[in-house]
Amino acid sequence: KERGEGADGKKKEKTNKDDEVLGASQILGSLAPRHLEVVQLLAGLGRTTMGNFKREAKKKLLVQDGRALEALMVELLEHGLVIRKGGKGADEVDVRGEGLRTKVLAWKRAR
Fold this sequence. Notes:
The protein has 111 residues and is an alpha+beta fold. Helix content is 54%, strand content 16%. The strands form two sheets. It has a three-stranded antiparallel sheet with strand order 3-5-4. Helix 2 (33-45) packs across helix 5.
């Protein structure tokens, strides 16, 4: 943790989570539109199974098949935006943390 001053002049601690959300802003800004839509869908769903996530992504026409979503997920995992736990078929997926979820759901791409 680091210390800094808040807007009110009082000492305020800066955590690693603050840095993660800041870094996520840079990543979100650089994502292709489809990648952003996929991570926003996952943020809205919350922790879910990969199977349910695939169904919802197909329903919203974000991907045509599971392979396309798997490819997007690999990139999102590499960027540290999402987490995946469990075994094949029954694994769970989610965005990495509540601070990131809030940021992703509020994110609007600059036009």
